[in-house]
Design brief:
The complex is a heterotrimer of chains A (about 160), B (about 800) and C (about 300).
Chain A (H helix, E strand, L loop, with lengths): L2 E5 L2 E5 L8 H8 L18 E4 L2 E4 L12 E3 L13 H9 L8 H14 L5 H7 L11 H15 L5
Parallel strand pairs in A: 1-5
Antiparallel strand pairs in A: 1-2, 3-4, 3-5
Helix pairs in contact in A: 2-3, 2-5
Chain B lengths: L28 E3 L17 H6 L14 E7 L5 E7 L1 H4 L4 E5 L10 E2 L6 E2 L5 E2 L5 E7 L2 H9 L2 E6 L6 H5 L23 E9 L2 H7 L2 E9 L11 E6 L5 E5 L4 H12 L6 E5 L15 H11 L3 E4 L2 H7 L2 E2 L2 E9 L5 E11 L7 H10 L9 E9 L6 E2 L6 H19 L3 H8 L19 H10 L9 E2 L2 E2 L17 E14 L8 E11 L2 E7 L9 H13 L4 E3 L17 H28 L5 H4 L2 E4 L2 E4 L4 E4 H5 L4 E8 L18 E14 L4 E12 L6 H20 L33 E4 L16 H18 L5 E2 L3 H4 L3
Parallel strand pairs in B: 2-15, 11-34, 13-14, 16-20, 18-19, 25-26, 32-33
Antiparallel strand pairs in B: 1-26, 2-8, 3-7, 3-9, 4-8, 5-6, 10-19, 11-17, 12-13, 12-15, 17-18, 21-22, 23-31, 24-25, 24-30, 27-28, 28-29, 31-32
Helix pairs in contact in B: 6-7, 10-18, 11-12, 13-14, 17-18
Chain C lengths: L1 E3 L4 H10 L4 E3 L5 H6 L7 E4 L9 E2 L4 E5 L4 H7 L5 H9 L3 H4 L4 H7 L6 H8 L2 E6 L2 E6 L4 E3 L2 E2 L6 E8 L5 E6 L10 E8 L4 E7 L9 H13 L2 H4 L5 H14 L10 H28 L5
Parallel strand pairs in C: 1-3, 2-3
Antiparallel strand pairs in C: 4-5, 5-10, 6-7, 6-10, 8-9, 11-12, 12-13
Classes of the chains: A alpha+beta (about 160), B alpha+beta (about 800), C alpha+beta (about 300).
The complex binds flavin-adenine dinucleotide and FE2/S2 (inorganic) cluster (2 copies).
Chain lengths: ~160, ~800, ~300
C-alpha cells in the first residue's frame, strides 16, 4: 500500500509498504530517517519515540497505515533548520547524558515533550515522564541533569 | 499476502557509502578547533555527541545500501536435539528469496568459531546444543519475506535429554555436550562437561580454620544476567569485486572478529575488511560473534549487500550472557576480627559453548576472596558445559558473581563477631603491598579501607522523602507508580560492599593495542589525526583519545578516524582496558610523533635558537615551547608540508598463567576497586524494593575525563542494581528453554528504579599505567549488587542467598 | 495482509461484518507487538484510528460513556473525578507513550488477565457496549471475560464504548510488579465503595485465568458494613474485619506460577493489596464526611 504523511514538516510518501510494517520501519528503512531507534520493537524501551499529531508515541507500535495523513515529528526535527541544537539536545551533550546514544533520540523527544508541557518539572515529574525510555549505559543520573539543565536554561536561570 | 519489494520509489535521503555520517563509513570525528584546550583531566564533551543528539550518528542497524537484501536466522526451538533432516526447498522456492543456507553450504574447511576455543558451529550440524542455536539462514528482499521463508524450512529434531546443572553434567552416565574435545583445557578437567577448572590454594586452610573463633558457611546463587545493550545486533555485509567482503558491524573487537570470520569464509584476512559502525552499548555481549559470519556468507552467496538486524527477541539468543553461578563459601575469623581463612567452590554455568568461560573461571578463582588479606585460602572455580544458553563476557565477569557471595559472607561473619560490617572489612582490607591468594603482590595503591570510609562518612539521605503536603508521592515509594503502598510496611535498610576487579587481559595473554597518529598542517593549522581499531561502544574512548593527543601534542584540532581493520588491533573494549591500552597506545604514538616533530624542528630551526639543543621541549598551543615557557616555533612552520605519521603497538607489562594446581602466578596487570553504600526502602509486606541512594567511591588512578568516569560509575552501578532486584534470564530447568526473551519479562531498571548515585572519585596514581590511570568501567558493577542485598537484609532480617531477589523471597515463610 | 481504513463507525461495522476474522487495531499497543514479533499474521487489519467518536467520552447524567479508544492519558487527566478507580489503574499502565495510544477497548479486546483496566471495570460495574451491523448489546462486565485472553464479543462485533456509573464513593487500584514503572502486573486489585447502594465491588487481575471479582469478600464486607452500622458511623474499620476481607480476596484468586511470580506470592500479595486499598478507600470515605467537599 501507499502511505503519505508529514514528517518534520515535509510531506513524505512511501510506496509498496507491507501492511504489517510499523511507522518506525517506514521512517528508518523507506524514508531515510533512521534517527528513531529500534531497540525493542515492543513498546518497552522508548528508543523509537516520536510525536504523532503532537502526542508522544512509540513509533514501533503504530502501524504504518495508521500514520496516513498525520503529522510526525522525529528527533531529526528537533534542531533548527540552520542546525542549531534545541535546548534539550544541547543539554544532553553538555551534561554527559549521552554514552552509546542509542536511547538518546527517544529520550530527547520525550524530554522535549515534557518541557513543552511542564517547563519546570520536579525530579519526580522528570522520572515519571521518562519512565518509558530505557537507558542501559548512564544510570540516568546525567539524563536527569540534562533535563534540569535544559529547563533552567530555557527559564533563563542559568547561562545557556 | 506477499510483501512487496522494498523501497521502490520511496524518498531516500540516505547517503551512499563513505560520503557522510549516515553512510556506511562514518566520517572522522573532528573536534576542538577554537575550543578550550581540552587535554586530559578535563571534562571535554564527546566528539560524537552532536551526531548522536541529532539522530545522524549511524548505528549498525541504520545502515542501508542500494539493492540490499535482508538476512534472517532460523534458530532451534529446542535446547538439545539431533537434527534428523533439514529441507529448505520450499523456502528457496518462495518469491523474493535469494538464498537459503545450511551447514552443508559452508564454503571452507573451517566451520566453527570461538573466542579462544573454536567450538561454536557457524550453523548447527547434526545436533543443536542450546535453545536458539542458528540452524539456517535466509536472504530475501524484505524482512517479512525472509521470515515467511524461514518458517517454511522443515527441520526434524529428535530431542535429547538436557544437561542443565552440575548434577546432570557430571553425574554418572551424563551425556557429553561436546563429544570429542581437543581444546587445551580438556587435558586437566575432571570431566569432559567441565570446560575449565582453576584452583587457588595458598597456605593451609584446614590449619587456619582450627584457629578461627567464628566460622560461617553459605551457599549462594547468582542468576543469569543479560547485557541488554539497547542497539540490537546488526550489520551490513557488502560483497566486493575482488571476491572479498566489506563488513560494517557493531562489535567490541574488530580484529578478533576478523580472525574468526575469515577462515570460515575461506578468505584471507585482507579480503575481509571490517569497519566499526555505531555501537549501541556492549557490556561484553558483543565480544562474541553474532551476525558477522552469517551476513558475509549470504552476501558472498547472493552477490548482494545483506543486512541483518536482530529484534529484541532474537537478541536474547544472539549473544552470550553473564554466567549464572552457585557459590559455596566458608569464612573464618578470630575474635579480634581478622580473617583466618576462606574456602570456596564456585560453579559457573558456561552453557553450550566456551565463549570466554576460561577467563571467567580465572577471575572468579583469583579474585574469589575479594579485596581482603587472607593467608590461608582454598578456592576452586569451574565452568560447566551444559545445554543452557552460552555464557561469556559481561561487565565485571567472574568477579561479579564472587563479590556477591563473599560480601554476604563478610556481613554474616561481622554479625557473628559482633563487629560493625564496615569496621570488619577495614580490618581485613588489602592495601598496597598486600599479597593476593595467587601470590601476586599488589604493587599499586589499593585504598580499600579508604573507599569504605568515604561511602560511610556521607550523610544519609533524609527519611520518608515520599511524604509531601499533598499526601504520599508514590513515585518515591516501593512499588512506584503501581500504587501499592502509601507508607505501610516500609522499612529502611543500609548496606555496604566493596570489590576488586582485574584490569586488562590476564593470565599471560599478549594484550596490546595499536594506534596510528599523524600530524600535518591543514589550512595553515596543525591538525592531529588518531586512528585506532578501538570499538567505541559508548564508553567515551574517542573523547579521551582526542584529549590525549591535545595534551601530548599541543594541538587543539584532533580528528578521530573511524575504527577499522586498516590499522592494527586495539584489542577488546572490555576488561576495563581500553583507556589503559588504546589510550596508552595513543599516548605512546603521540610521544613518538612529538620526537619526530622536534627532530624536524631541530633540522629546520636548530640554528636559530640554542634552546633547540639544550632545553626540554614540549608542544603547546600549536607551538614548540621550552620548559621555561618560551615559544621557539609554530608547529605549522616546523611541519611545513610534511606529515609525521607513526603507528605503534603498546603493551602492558606481561602477566603469567596461573598454575593449574595451585593458582599461583602474577596473573593480573592491575586491580581496580570500588565501594558502595546502598540505602533502600523495602515494603516488607509485599517484598517490593525502592533503592533510595547508591553511593559509590572508586579509585580511578587518574580521571582522564571526570564526566565520563562518573558516567561509567553510574551506569555500572545501575547494572549491579538490576541484577540485585530484577534482572534474570529464566531458563526452564526441565527443557533448558529461555522463558522470558523480551523486554516485557526481562526487566532492566527504569529511571524510576534508579536512585541518586553520588560518586566520589579518588585518584591515586598507579605508576605502571599511562598517566597513572586505572581501568574504571567494571568495578562499580561488582559492589553495587551486594550493597543493595545487604541493605535489603538489614531491612527485612532475611538471609537472601540469591540474586535477583524477588518479592516472594522477601515475604512468605 | 490487507489494511482496512474505515472512515466512519458504520463503515467499520460493515467491514467487520464482511471480514469477521479482521483484527481491529486501535492504539496498536497489543496488536503491533504481536505483528512485530511474528505472533500474528491476520488477513486483515481493521484500523479504528479514523473513527473520532471512539476517542470521545460523555458524562451526561450519572453514567460515563467512554469511547473504546480514549487513551489512558486522557482517562487519567479527564476522568479522575468521575472514574477514579479506572484513572488510578490507567496511571499504572506502561509508560506515557503507551498511555497516549492504548485504551480500554484494546484492553478488553485482548482480555489478558493482566490487563489493568479490568479490575477497575469489575469494581465499577461496567457494561461493554458491543455493536455490530446487527445492533447493539450491553454486556455486563462480569460476563465479558470468557477464558484466557477470550471475551464475549461475537466475530462481527466491535466495542463502541464502556459504560460506567460515575463514582459515588472512593475507589482504589493497586498492582504489584517487580519494577517501579513499566511493568505488567504480577497481580492487581481494584475496589470501589458504592455508598449509594451500600455496596462494595472488587476486581482481581493476574491471579486467575480471567479477571475476576472477589464475590465472597464483597458480600462479607457489605454485610459487615451494614450490620456494624459502619456506613453511617464512619468509624475506623476493625482490624479483624480488614484481615478477614483480605483473606477472602486472597482465597478468591486462582493463580499460577510463572516467570513473573509464584502462585503463593500472588495470593499473599492480593491479601495485602485488599487490606490496604480497603483502608485507603474507607479512610477517604470517613474523611469526606468530616471535610465536606471543598469544590
Ligand atoms: C510496553 C507495553 C507495556 C504495557 N503495559 C501494560 C500495563 O501495564 N497494563 C496493561 O493493562 N496493559 C499494558 N500493555 C498492553 C496494552 O497497552 C493495553 O492492553 C492497551 O489497553 C491496549 O489498547 P490498544 O488500543 O493499544 O489496543 P490494540 O493493540 O489496538 O488492540 C488490542 C486488542 O483489542 C482489539 N480491539 C481494539 N479495539 C477494539 C474495539 N473497539 N472493538 C473490538 N476489539 C478491539 C484488537 O483487535 C486487539 O485484539 C502494555 C503494552 C506494551 C506494548
Ligand atoms: S523500539 Fe519502540 S519502544 Fe522499543
Ligand atoms: S546511552 Fe546507551 S542506552 Fe542510553
Amino acid at each position: 500500500m501507499r502511505v503519505t504523511f508529514t514528517v518534520n514538516g515535509r510531506r513524505q510518501e512511501a510506496d509498496d509498504v507491507w501492511e504489517g510494517e510499523s511507522l518506525l520501519y517506514v521512517l528508518r528503512e523507506r524514508l531515510g530517517l533512521p534517527g528513531s531507534k529500534n531497540a525493542c520493537e515492543q513498546g518497552e524501551c522508548g528508543s523509537c519515540t516520536v510525536r504523532l499529531d503532537g502526542d508522544l508515541v512509540c513509533s514501533c507500535l503504530v502501524a504504518a497505515g495508521q500514520a496516513e495523513g498525520r503529522d510526525v515529528r522525529t528527533v531529526e526535527g528537533l534542531a533548527a533548520e540552520d542546525g542549531t541544537l534545541s535546548p534539550v539536545q544541547r543539554a544532553f551533550v553538555d551534561a554527559g547524558a549521552v554514552q552509546c546514544g542509542f536511547c538518546t533520540p527517544g529520550l530527547l523527544v520525550a524530554a522535549d515533550d515534557l518541557l513543552a508541557r511542564n517547563p519546570s518539572p520536579s525530579d519526580g515529574d522528570i522520572r515519571e515522564a521518562l519512565s518509558g525510555n530505557l537507558c542501559r549505559c548512564t544510570g540516568y543520573e546525567k539524563i536527569l541533569d540534562a533535563v534540569r539543565l535544559a529547563a533552567a536554561r530555557t527559564a533563563g536561570t542559568v547561562d545557556a | 499476502m506477499t510483501p512487496p519489494r522494498p523501497g521502490a520509489g520511496a524518498a531516500r535521503d540516505r547517503t551512499e557509502p563513505g560520503t557522510g555520517s549516515t553512510g556506511l563509513t562514518p566520517a572522522g570525528l573532528t573536534q576542538g578547533a577554537g575550543a578550550t584546550k581540552g587535554g586530559i583531566g578535563e571534562s571535554t564533551l564527546r566528539p560524537d555527541g552532536v551526531l548522536k543528539v541529532t539522530g545522524e550518528f549511524a548505528y549498525a542497524s541504520d545502515l542501508w545500501h542500494e539493492d540490499m537484501l535482508w538476512g534472517y536466522t532460523l534458530r532451534s526451538p529446542v535446547a538439545h536435539a539431533r537434527i534428523v533432516s533439514v529441507d529448505t526447498s520450499q523456502a528457496l522456492a518462495t518469491p523474493g528469496v535469494y538464498a537459503v543456507l545450511t551447514y552443508d553450504d559452508l564454503p571452507a574447511e573451517a566451520k566453527h568459531y570461538g573466542l579462544e576455543i573454536r567450538d561454536t558451529p557457524v550453523l548447527a550440524h547434526g545436533k543443536v546444543r542450546h535453545h536458539g542455536e542458528p540452524v539456517a539462514l535466509v536472504a530475501a528482499d524484505h524482512p517479512e519475506t525472509a521470515r515467511r521463508a524461514a518458517a517454511k524450512i522443515q527441520v526434524e529434531y529428535e530431542e535429547l535429554p538436557v544437561i542443565t546443572d552440575e548434577a546432570s553434567a557430571t553425574g554418572p552416565g551424563a551425556a557429553l555436550v561436546h563429544e570429542h574435545r581437543t581444546d587445551h583445557y580438556a587435558g586437566h578437567v575432571p570431566h569432559p562437561n567441565v570446560l575449565h577448572r582453576q584452583p587457588v590454594i595458598r597456605g593451609d586452610a584446614d590449619a587456619a580454620a582450627a584457629r578461627a573463633d567464628a566460622i560461617v558457611t553459605g551457599e549462594y546463587v547468582f542468576g543469569m544476567q543479560d547485557q541488554a545493550f539497547l542497539g540490537p545486533e546488526s550489520g551490513l555485509a557488502v560483497p566486493a569485486e575482488d571476491g572479498g567482503v566489506d563488513l560494517y558491524v557493531a562489535t567490541q573487537w574488530l580484529h578478533s572478529d576478523l580472525r574468526q570470520i575469515a577462515p570460515v569464509l575461506g578468505l584471507p584476512e585482507d579480503k575481509v575488511r571490517m569497519t566499526l559502525s555505531g555501537v549501541g552499548g556492549a557490556f561484553g555481549g558483543r565480544e562474541d560473534l553474532s551476525m558477522q559470519i552469517h551476513g558475509c556468507l549470504l552476501a558472498l552467496r547472493t552477490g548482494k549487500p545483506v543486512k541483518i538486524v536482530y529484534n529484541r527477541f532474537e537478541s536474547f539468543f544472539g549473544h552470550v550472557h553473564r554466567h549464572p553461578a552457585r557459590l559455596w563459601y566458608e569464612h573464618g575469623a578470630t575474635k579480634d576480627g581478622k580473617l583466618t581463612h576462606v574456602r570456596a567452590r564456585i560453579v559457573l554455568d558456561g552453557g553450550a559453548y566456551a565463549s570466554s568461560s576460561p577467563a571467567v573461571v580465572g577471575n572468579a578463582a583469583s579474585l574469589g576472596v575479594g579485596p581482603y588479606v587472607v593467608h590461608d585460602v582454598d578456592v576452586e572455580a569451574l565452568a560447566l558445559y551444559t545445554n543452557n544458553p552460552p555464557c561469556g563476557a559481561m561487565r565485571g565477569f567472574g568477579a561479579v558473581q564472587a563479590c556477591f557471595a563473599y560480601e554476604a559472607q563478610m556481613d554474616r561473619l561481622a554479625a557473628e563477631l559482633g563487629l560493625d560490617p564496615v569496621e570488619f572489612r577495614q580490618r581485613n582490607a588489602m592495601e598496597q603491598g598486600s599479597v593476593m591468594p595467587t601470590g601476586q603482590v599488589v604493587d599499586a595503591p589499593a585504598p580499600v579501607a579508604e573507599l569504605l570510609r568515604r561511602v560511610k562518612a556521607r550523610p544519609l539521605p533524609p527519611e520518608r522523602q515520599w511524604e509531601t503536603s499533598e499526601g504520599p508521592d508514590v513515585r518515591a515509594l516501593p512499588g512506584g507508580l503501581s500504587n501499592t503502598t502509601h507508607g505501610e510496611g516500609v522499612v529502611r535498610g543500609v548496606g555496604y560492599a566493596v570489590g576488586i576487579k582485574n584490569v586488562g587481559f590476564s593470565e599471560g595473554f599478549d594484550d596490546y593495542s595499536t594506534a596510528r597518529v599523524r600530524m600535518e598542517v591543514i589550512g595553515g593549522e596543525p591538525v592531529v589525526t588518531v586512528h585506532t581499531a578501538m570499538a567505541e561502544v559508548g564508553q567515551g574512548g574517542v573523547t579521551v583519545h582526542a584529549q590525549i593527543a591535545r595534551t601530548e601534542l599541543g594541538v587543539t584540532a584532533v580528528t578521530i578516524q573511524p575504527a577499522d581493520t586498516r590499522v592494527g588491533s586495539a584489542g577488546s573494549t572490555s576488561a576495563s582496558r581500553q583507556t589503559y591500552l588504546t589510550g596508552g597506545a595513543v599516548k605512546q604514538a603521540c610521544e613518538a610523533v612529538r620526537e619526530r616533530v622536534l627532530a624536524l624542528g631541530r633540522r629546520r630551526f636548530g640554528s636559530h635558537h640554542p634552546a633547540w639543543a639544550t632545553a626540554e621541549l614540549v608542544l603547546e598551543d600549536g607551538k614548540v615551547v621550552t620548559d621555561g615557557g618560551e615559544a621557539l616555533a609554530a608547529l605549522a612552520d616546523v611541519l611545513g608540508d610534511e606529515a609525521v605519521d607513526v603507528e605503534l603497538e603498546f603493551r602492558h607489562r606481561p602477566t603469567e598463567p596461573f598454575d593449574l594446581r595451585t593458582g599461583q602466578g602474577n596473573g593480573h596487570v592491575q586491580y581496580s576497586f570500588a565501594a558502595h553504600r546502598a540505602v533502600v526502602e523495602v515494603d516488607t509486606e509485599l517484598g517490593l524494593v525502592k533503592v533510595i541512594e547508591l553511593a559509590c567511591a572508586q579509585d580511578v588512578g587518574k580521571a582522564l575525563n571526570p564526566l565520563s568516569v562518573q558516567g561509567q560509575i553510574q551506569g555500572g552501578t545501575t547494572q549491579g542494581l538490576g541484577i540485585a532486584v530484577m534482572e534474570e534470564i529464566v531458563v526452564d530447568p526441565l527443557t533448558a528453554k529461555v522463558r522470558n526473551p523480551s523486554f516485557t519479562d526481562y526487566l532492566i531498571p527504569t529511571i524510576l528504579d534508579t536512585p541518586t548515585i553520588p560518586v566520589d572519585i579518588l585518584e591515586l596514581a598507579d605508576h605502571h599505567a599511562p598517566y597513572g590511570l586505572r581501568g574504571a568501567g567494571e568495578a562499580p558493577t561488582l559492589s553495587a549488587t551486594p550493597a543493595v542485598l545487604a541493605a535489603i537484609r538489614q531491612a527485612t532480617g532475611r538471609a537472601l542467598n540469591r540474586v535477583p531477589v524477588r518479592p516472594e523471597h522477601l515475604t512468605g515463610p | 495482509m490487507d489494511f482496512l481504513r474505515p472512515a466512519s463507525w458504520p463503515e467499520a461495522l460493515a467491514a467487520k461484518a464482511e471480514h469477521p476474522a479482521a483484527v481491529p487495531i486501535a492504539g496498536g499497543t497489543d496488536v503491533m507487538v504481536e505483528i512485530n514479533f511474528d505472533h500474528r499474521r491476520p488477513e486483515h487489519l481493521l484500523d479504528l484510528g479514523r473513527i473520532t467518536e471512539l476517542r470521545e467520552w460523555d458524562g451526561d447524567g450519572d453514567t460515563v460513556r467512554l469511547g473504546a479508544a480514549v487513551p489512558y492519558t486522557r482517562i487519567v487527566e479527564e476522568l479522575a473525578g468521575d472514574l477514579p478507580g479506572l484513572a488510578l489503574a490507567g496511571r499504572t499502565v506502561a509508560s506515557p507513550q503507551i498511555r497516549n495510544r492504548g485504551g480500554v477497548g484494546g484492553n478488553l479486546g485482548t482480555a489478558s488477565p493482566a490487563g489493568d483496566a479490568h479490575p477497575a471495570l469489575l469494581a465499577g460495574g461496567a457494561e461493554v457496549e458491543a455493536v455490530s451491523v446487527r445492533g447493539t448489546r450491553l454486556i455486563p462486565i462480569d460476563a465479558f471475560y470468557t477464558g484466557v485472553k477470550r471475551n464475549a464479543l461475537a466475530p462481527d462485533e466491535l466495542i463502541r464504548a464502556v459504560r460506567l456509573k460515575k463514582a459515588t464513593g472512593p475507589q482504589q487500584f493497586a498492582k504489584v510488579g517487580t519494577r517501579n514503572a513499566m511493568v505488567i502486573a504480577v497481580c492487581a486489585f481494584g475496589i470501589a465503595l458504592h455508598p449509594d447502594v451500600r455496596g462494595v465491588r472488587t476486581g482481581i487481575g493476574s491471579a486467575a485465568p480471567t479477571p475476576i471479582r472477589a464475590t465472597a469478600a464483597e458480600e462479607f464486607l457489605a454485610a459487615e458494613l451494614a450490620d456494624g452500622g459502619h456506613w453511617d458511623r464512619r468509624g475506623p474499620l476493625p482490624p479483624a474485619l480488614l484481615r478477614h476481607f483480605a483473606g477472602l480476596v486472597a482465597g478468591a484468586a486462582n493463580p499460577v506460577d510463572d516467570v513473573r511470580g509464584t502462585a503463593a506470592y500472588r495470593r499473599h500479595a492480593l491479601g495485602v493489596l485488599a487490606r490496604r486499598t480497603l483502608t485507603w478507600t474507607w479512610e477517604q470515605y470517613r474523611g469526606e464526611e468530616r471535610t465536606p467537599t471543598c469544590a
